[in-house]
Amino acid sequence: MPPMWNDVTRPLAVGLLCAASACSTPPACPGAAFDEAAMTDDVTWLASPALDGRAPGSAGDEEARAFVEDRFACLGLEAPAEFEGYQQPFTDSEGNETANVIGYLPGADATVGGDILVVSAHVDHFGDGRLGANDNASGIAGLLAIAQAFSEGESTSRTVVFAVFGAEESGDEGSASLYAGAPDELPTDDFVYDVNMDMIGSYTQTGTVWALGSMAGTPGRASLDLLVEDYPDLDVGLGEPSDQSDNQEFCLAGVPYVFFWTEDPDCYHRKCDTADRIDYPELVEIAELTGDLAEDLANTSADLRAAVEPGTDVCGM
Length: 317
Ligand SMILES: [Zn+2]
Hints:
- Helix content is about 30%, strand content about 15%.
- The chain has helices at about 10-15, 35-45, 60-75, 135-150, 175-180, 205, 220-225, 245-250, 280-300, and strands at about 85-90, 95-105, 115-120, 160-165, 190-195, 210, 235-240, 255-260.
- Helix 2 (about 35-45) packs across helix 4 (about 135-150), helix 3 packs parallel to helix 4 (about 135-150) and helix 7 packs across helix 9 (about 280-300).
């Protein structure tokens, strides 16, 4: 018999980061960012049979978004004033009512504080027994760990938006919806970079994590060339463009990106994409590298609005 929704207990109530009582006021999360056990809990919950793969508009999709909202609140992220909580509702191309979950930390610098760095990952998958642990519970776990590290650290120069997109699998519909209806306090004209995670949990399949979009001449590449030295256990693939995830919506709007991805030849979009086969130690390292890149881009004195060299192929088209 399948579990009844009333029987479902979120890891917020039982896990390591947020006891339910600690997630009301004051909004603070106990536990360390990038904790492997906590990230394992996040992936395991999001890819649990109870959420059945988080298909847009499904009960599992709603529950997953509620989980992300609870975590954003717990971490003290700002919610756009014109949204309901952190959620930006939209109807996808198949008529499903779903939403993005958008939280942010304001930039502290008087000059570039209005610049917006977007850290993104999609939460939806296919459902019907396809649970999407690597695609993309892994990316959400990474995003939540980075959000925790940023919320607990010093303010960044630029504003950092944490964007959890819906309906990516049907064609980047969540990121397109953010562009179509961004809140007044986060205008898309101020977006300067996207750091996207989609499938970061299958490192050992090929022994490489790709930092797609990090072509020579981009600020992301300049940063990664130095950062990879801090991760000797990771082979980081640099330089290739990709139009295969939400970063493409940013790119089409002229915003450069780095898209972290691990190839998953065995279980891509298959029912075997389950939480038990995620490479958790490497997931932690990839999330930390992604967070380091986001921190660099959020704080660099380089003018990100003018920093991509003319002619650089940032969209991979
Ligand atoms: Zn995906």
